[in-house]
Amino acid sequence: MTLAIIGAGMAGLSCARALKQAGLSVDIFDKGRGPGGRMSTRRVQVEARELRFDHGAQYFTARDERFRAEVARWRDAGRVAPWPAAGAEALVGVPGMNEPVRAMAEGLDVQWATRIERLERRAGEWVLHGAEGAHSGYTHVAIAVPAEQAGPLVAPFSPNFADRAERTTSEPCWTVMACFAQTLPLADTITTGDAVAWAARDGAKPGRSGSESWVLQASPDWTRDHLDLRAEQVAEQLLAVFCAENAVEPARPIYLAAHRWLYAKAQPVAGEPALWDAALGLGLAGDWLLAPRVESAWISGRELADRVIAESS
Fold it and tell me: FRET pair for 263, CA 20 to 30 Å: which of 40, 152, 156, 286?
């Protein structure tokens, strides 16, 4: 049994680690340049110092016993820490939100910057096609990407899986990253705005630089209304709205940028935590099958791995 996993986010890596621990051979492909996905951390140099912005997921919680055990290992290694400003159960990666994903990728065969655009079934094996060429020889394929990307990949082989994916929609999110020379007179987290659904003093998270760095996440409605604007325009406009909503004197940031997440928060279809077709050797995993949370992505990947392992036994 040789397996390919498309997607090296939380779901894909959770699946991959469980499969490898069971002694199975796994190759992983991801279009990103490195670990993170929606748990990404952006690093930039400003005035001879490095700033970090968690511009995707802001924090996570751990309630499932299996996930709690994994998180305990990360905490023991100093790779996650509590963030009381976001709630009693909130946890963040240290020194960036992508640290747990980096930990999960260690020791795995991940081919970064590799976009898989099409699957082919040939002589009982899977062939993965992308701009960089074809990857063949796989008996099983697991797809751990957003539903909107998974649907077209599986449609030629499993109309049922494709339908499940296509009935799932994701809310978009414009995220603005800003750093100021002076401290803003605000709490570390703000969730009361209409246009800005979430704002956090990112530099105050555990293990950060202490800089006055902020992450502003627009509401789905505001994002949809401004979806096609240039990032520079969005950054200026959302920052102005944030200052107005919180009665803060507008300040010129020393760094300002925006990132658009098209698939930020899935609205899941109720059903199984993972989808698996043993006859095809094809599976799907992701938070969109359960709930839009980091923990849900991890559980989904683990559940898919358990089904593959059960077949191989």
Answer: 156
